[in-house]
Amino acid sequence: MKTLILMRHAKAQHISSDLTDLHRSLVHQGIEDAKQSAKKLIKHELKIDELILSPSTRTIETAQILKEELGDQIKSWSVQERLYASDLNTLLRIVAEASKKTSTLMLVGHNPELDEIAEHFLHTPHHLKTGELILFKFDAQSWNEVAKQKPTKVLFHDEF
Q1: Nearest-angstrom CA–CA distance, 143 and 160
Q2: Residue span of the structural domain in which 97 resides
Q3: For residues 80 and 54, is the Cβ–Cβ distance under 8 A?
Q4: Integer Cα distance of 107 and 115 in angstroms
Q5: DSSP code per residue over 96-155
Q6: What confidence tens digit (pLDDT) does each residue in 57-105 have?
Q7: Which of 19, 51, 65, 104 could cross-link 3 (Cys pair, CB 3.0–4.6 Å)?
Q8: How many separate domains does the chain show?
Q9: Which residues participate in the annotated binding site for substrate?
């Protein structure tokens, strides 16, 4: 059994002439939303073997809040450049490359890419708002199998 959790970064500053997209920080509401999402993960006693995030400031800050709230429930985390401004195929490759020992993988990233991978598994349109989670469970032995499967269970943000 493999569990994939997608989380869109929490609410961030707007782009301005002196602030690039990559360097936008979380706003107060974003910090609170990230804490609420962390509480949802704690409530379901989810242990995250591997958390992968994009190099943007807002995803790093979101992941730091998750780490502060979940503590050792997050075993490892890494920043991957290719998660920023990517596409569906790149996200599917990232998932497929996860270690076979990883039972629960979490991606913290951006739209439209996260919407695309969610829609890939749901076979229907879906929109992740900032700070939202979606969880997929798969009856798979390896992450390479996941891209070709339909999830056996889906938890939407409001269902956590």
Answers
A1: 23
A2: 2-13+22-155
A3: yes
A4: 12
A5: HTS-TT-SEEEEEE-TTHHHHHHHHHHSS---PPTT-EEEEEE--SSHHHHTTS--SEEE
A6: 999 999 999 999 999 999 999 999 999 999 999 999 999 999 999 999 9
A7: 104
A8: 1
A9: 58, 81-84
The backbone torsions φ and ψ at residue 147, rounded to the nearest 5 degrees and listed phi first, read -60, -25
Question: For residue 13, is pLDDT > 80?
Answer: yes
If pLDDT is split at 50, 70 and 90, which confidence band does 32 have? Answer: very high
Q: What's the pTM value of the predicted model, to 2 decimals? A: 0.96
Catalytic residue set: 9, 81
Q: What tokens were used for 81?
A: 């450049």
In a domain, 160, yes or no: no
Q: Which CATH number characterizes residue 92's domain? A: 3.40.50.1240
Q: What are phi and psi of 32, to 5 degrees?
A: -65, -40
Element (H, E) at 42: helix 28-43
Residue 109 lies in a domain: yes
